User: What shape does this take?
Amino acid sequence: MAQIVNMPKLGFDMAEGTLIRWVVQEGESITKGAILAEIETDKATVEVESAYEGVVARHLVDKGAIVPVNTPIAVIAEQGEEVDVNALVGAGVTTRQAAIINEQPSEKPGAPVPEGALPTEGNLPAGVRSSPIARRMADEHGVDIGQVRGTGPGGRITRKDVEVYLSAARAAPLPAVTAQPAIPAAPLLAYQPTTPVAEDRPVSLNRLRAAIGRRMTEAKQQVPHFYVTHEYNMASLTDLRIQVNALLPEEEKISINDYLLKAVALTLREFPNLNASFQGNQILQHGSINVGVAVAVEGGLLTVVCRETDRKPVRQIAMEVRHMVARAREGKVRPEDIEGSTFSVSNLGMFDVEHFVAILNPPEAAILAVGSVREVPVVKDGQIVPGLRLHATISVDHRVSDSAEAARFLQALAKYIEQPLSLLV
Assistant: This one.
């Protein structure tokens, strides 16, 4: 029986995605769990797996289309099955969805849409004609759509035309800087610039950076944050890591952050109120402990998720996080890589950062910001001696918890960090 594949919703705030590439073409076979397509969300490029087995009978949207969540994007049928796409897809397609499907090039077969469902063709002054998506893109980038050359039927401006216009604008050379007249040297003037001052250059936000800006602004404005910092003795954990890594091949070595993820997860067992989300008039304490790990990627920041972190050995945590980080930086994350975190850890230790504070990642109630392991002078038995220390700062939603509970959490975390054998048993 033929099945419809919809644009998946890969996050509570995802409204639409851009179809980057069809991995399986029309007429080709596909197995359940195989990669059907790649889509770009506000967070990352994600590989979409097929929930069905059969033959890809029809692509309903083309490469480059911006598609709302839950919009039909493909039909998968059984081998040899005759598919009435009109009956299968037509009923239940909204006006907005129909517009997206209708945006595809005329030479590509598309799913028929119910009569009367399509919006009126966009018309602009002076006879300029454009699609709704093209108009929206032009508005978002501050482009006068009348300056865009349309290549669609009858000169209609399409999404692709706006993209070409924007690419050409970005590639245009900056205006030449006119040399300034020479100024006679003054007796007391010690420095004369020999190169012209660079001009201001606007840089457009990519989807990821725009999403980060939007979500972090909302989080900072709508969630009452507070912060608590604790210092940890890292001598024992550093020694343990050295001993364990000496037994492992290079590609399986465990980082300090991997041990911290396990320590955080075990501590959260004792503090379920911090493994939670604020929901209206109640606090939802999550049964699973899924620790998110902030990853720096091109153009922004992404959080990958280690699920059931408290139940996994450190070696498995290290392997899973390593693979997810690699996929994130290659732009090949999977939906399960980036959704479902219940608590996050942001580690800037590799950048020689002493300490910092992080903004909450809604709807989570807390996030831990981790600095570098530093060799510093410490007092031991009345003597100043060298020691290894790390600062970690927890940011907490004050609607969910308070500073006393956060402080107790950080104290309890020290039990695992400063007695690290407990992380291996």
Observations:
- The two ends are 50 Å apart (CA to CA).
- The domain at 3-102 is CATH 2.40.50.100 (OB fold (Dihydrolipoamide Acetyltransferase, E2P)).
